[in-house]
Amino acid sequence: MERYSKYKDSGVDWIGEIPEGWKTTAIRHVLQLHSGSALPDDQYDAEGDFPVYGGGAIRGRANQCNVQGQTVIVSRQGATCGTTRFIGGNAWITEHALIACFLDAMYNKRYFAYVLHAMNLGNLSMTAAQPGISASIVQNQHTPVPNHIEQQAIADYLDEKTAAIDAAVADVERSIELLNEYRQSVISEAVTKGLDPNAPMKDSGIDWIGQIPEYWHIEKAKFLVSITNGSDPKTNGNIPVYGSGEGSFKTCGEYKEGPAVLIGRKGATLHIPHYVTGKYWNVDTAFDVKVTSNTISLRYYYYLATCFDYKQYMSQTTLPSMTQTAYWNMALPLPDTAEQNHIVDWLDEHLSQIDSLIAQKQSLIVRLKEYRSSLISECVTGKVKVPGVKED
Length: 392
Known about the structure:
By secondary structure, the chain is α+β, with helices and mostly antiparallel strands. 31% of the residues lie in helices and 23% in strands. It is built from seven helices and 23 strands. A hairpin with a 5-residue loop joins strand 16 and strand 17.
């Protein structure tokens, strides 16, 4: 893209050089930030006229609003701390966000929404454990200020370009969803139907399993595996610690020896099993599973665990949970161990190809988002001149 003809030092590290005709000022001279407010429970209404925003996406709808017209909000705490959003109309903004009140009608709200995005406000968080940011911290930052016509042109250009990038990201994310669905169907088909499409079938009598090859049999898990509780570690060290879900979240000094399959006891991700090797530890949100019979492969059990109909067995509590008894009483489809091993080897090979494709698409999303952020930063700081802008 074209650059401006002359630049000067802005005196602000994150901004760098700006076009000669631009100026810089503290954010507080452009806008003031104040906190949103809690919405009364009786005002939430799925059919309400006004969207409700917290720190991130829309959190519902309401019968009343506390901001009218266009504005900009900044997430003030949590994982989305520092995230900036342009609001296009009347809405209710909760206490989890800061609302921008612009001091002059000549300031283009969409342009300054992009400026706040480019500032990476999340890096200014006051704490690491629970990220948080204050209005004063944001207002004391400095912003580049082009003239009103340039603000409008930059905002229009970025609206068009970021919409195209966001659409591309959404398309890639959808393709990843489809690949993950296909991946799961490949596993389910292999561990319940086998790899021979011509095998004669019989009804298993179990909904999530459906038909199985005639020569397979059904066995309760309690005759095949041990399922034991986890516990909080007491010492520090470098052993990976797992809970409900896919990855380790800290380390400790105690350990158990793998291989083992970790299955969820409670939590939103309890349906995601994890196959671990080497030394590990599991806390009480996950059970660890080991085989007690030579009629089942642990790796085969892992693939079965990705297919369990968890909803059928979950305890009816606010936080999803599973019991040892529910896992023990699960009926599992079993071929002989030679066929199990064949299925596992086949799955390992085929899923690695799918996983590689998913990883490539995830990498593409990262690059697209990096490009989006870079484009915004270059435009709002004048490193490039958007089409249609004329210098004085």
